[in-house]
Amino acid sequence: MSFNYEKHKGGHSEDSFWTSYSDLFLGLSTIFLLLYVVASLRTGTDALRGQIENQKLTMQVEELQHQLNMYESVKNDYLANQAPKDEAQEYQELMDKLTLLQEDAKSEKDKLVQQALENDKKAKALNKYQQMVRNVMNANKMAKAKIINRDDLIKDQDVTIDDQENQITDLNKDIAQKKQLIAQGEQQIAATEDKLQKRVAELKWAYKANKLNKAKFEKQMAQAKADANSHIARLSNANAQYNAQLQEANAQLGQTQSDLNKTKGLLAQKEGEARGLQGQLGEVKGKLGAVNSELMNTKGALAQTSGQLEAAKGELGQAKGQLGHLQGQVGNLKGELGNLKGKLGETEGQLAQARAEIEARKSVANEISKGFAKAGIKAEIDGQTGDVVLDFGQQYFDNDSDRLKREMKGVIEKAMPIYSRSLFGNPKISDKVSAVEIVGFASPTYQGRFIDPKSNNPADKEALKYNMDLSYRRAKSIFNYMLDDQNVKFDHQKQLMSLMKVSGRSFLEVMKVQNRGVATAAEFCKQNDCKKAQRVIIRFSMDQKK
Question: What is the pLDDT of residues 368-388, one digit of tens each?
Answer without folding.
Answer: 999 999 988 888 899 888 899
